[in-house]
Amino acid sequence: CHTSRMATPKGKELAQNLPREELTHLILRLLQAWNEPLSHFNQHMEHHQELSDDSLSKAKQISNMVHELKTGVEKSMGIISNSLNGMASSEAAGLSISNEANLMSDSDFIHCFRRDSNKVQSYLRILKCRIMPENSC
């Protein structure tokens, strides 16, 4: 996975110990790291003649959801990170993703995306529990 070199907490307990701002920046970096690969994946999918319009539509929906989630996290957390917004996705993640992400097979790509999506979901749950502890987290 192109994000495997990105430093992320190993386990829920370590993620819970991260300060709120650091966890938020980690979420933003993960989301930013997927902007370019998802764009390339969508272009790749458009060239597959055997794919249905529904499959193409779902691939575009995923890209849009990642972008909206990134924007939502920035707004809801009150953090507009100029250092992340002003960089290309590979720079923001501290990775060279242009070749690595593009050379993955479709199944590897989906596996990596699912892995990172699960991380983002877990980190968002932790933040939600910190912000609204009444949700019995």
TrEMBL record:
<dbReference type="Pfam" id="PF00103">
    <property type="entry name" value="Hormone_1"/>
</dbReference>
<dbReference type="GO" id="GO:0005179">
    <property type="term" value="F:hormone activity"/>
</dbReference>
<dbReference type="InterPro" id="IPR018116">
    <property type="entry name" value="Somatotropin_CS"/>
</dbReference>
<dbReference type="GO" id="GO:0046427">
    <property type="term" value="P:positive regulation of receptor signaling pathway via JAK-STAT"/>
</dbReference>
<dbReference type="InterPro" id="IPR009079">
    <property type="entry name" value="4_helix_cytokine-like_core"/>
</dbReference>
<keyword id="KW-0372">Hormone</keyword>
<dbReference type="GO" id="GO:0005615">
    <property type="term" value="C:extracellular space"/>
</dbReference>
<dbReference type="InterPro" id="IPR001400">
    <property type="entry name" value="Somatotropin/Prolactin"/>
</dbReference>
<comment type="similarity">
    <text>Belongs to the somatotropin/prolactin family.</text>
</comment>
<keyword id="KW-0964">Secreted</keyword>
<protein>
    <submittedName>
        <fullName>PRL protein</fullName>
    </submittedName>
</protein>
<dbReference type="GO" id="GO:0031667">
    <property type="term" value="P:response to nutrient levels"/>
</dbReference>
